[in-house]
Request: fold
Amino acid sequence: MYREIIKPTTQRHMIEIPKEYLNQEVEILVLPFSYYQKDKKRKLKNIDPMIALQTSSMQETWNNSEDEAWDEL
Reply:
């Protein structure tokens, strides 16, 4: 796989195709790219209590005894 992230300044851009892709069908996509800067990443609070609450509620509501899909596993 070949991936290149650029910041174009014109509508034209020339790419160099790696030689191992020659004489093959390839897909070329042009998509906007966004990323989170390290200093702007959202900091997660302690989520352990939320996981504990969800796990206990899932145990009460999750009943797969009548689910035929689980029989073959």
About this structure: The chain has a mean pLDDT of 75.
